[in-house]
Amino acid sequence: MWDGIVDFEGGYVRVSAELRRYLAVLDDVGHWVFTEPPPAISPTDTVKPLTGRNPTSAIIEERFKGAGLTMAPEKPNVRIKDKHRKPREILFEWTNEAGRKETKILYCEWHGKIEAHTNRVHIYPPIPESGNRLIVAIFHKHLPLP
Asked: What residue numbers bound the domain in which 106 lies?
């Protein structure tokens, strides 16, 4: 995962402060953003959650925006062709309850925009296999688009 830091436009030094800020916010609210039932936009909102409902992509984006991050999912056409989808995929490995290694491919469509037109951090929402933690997956200047 950390290998991608050398792929940032301008190198790590150029993005280090903003990257650290992104990682801190993702650590603080990333799980909440993806898992808290709507309609709350901030962890301090007192609105009653719609139990059993998942937040929409629009709510997730708004929650990240409220936390000071520019995050978005990829457009649907990115997933269609291998040359655009595969760079956003990671092989996730974990140890199951029986102590055996398992793997699955995760499509990391959510990405943070460190700078307006370059330097991205791709993430994957919390899953049981990650201990319900958000997965920071890919660092890159910009993955290929259609």
From this structure: 2-140
Rounded CA gap, 146 and 76, in Å? Answer: 11
**Rounded CA separation 119/98 (Å):** 39
Give the global pTM: 0.93
Task: Kindly list the averaged pLDDT for each block of 10 residues, start to end, along the chain of length 146.
Answer: 79 94 98 97 94 96 98 96 96 95 97 95 97 96 93
User: Does the residue 145 lie in any domain?
Assistant: no
Q: Is residue 13 part of a domain?
A: yes
The total of other beta-carbon atoms located within 10 Å of residue 45's CB is 13
Strand-pairing partners, residue 84, are none
The conformation of residue 8, written as its DSSP 8-state character, comes to S
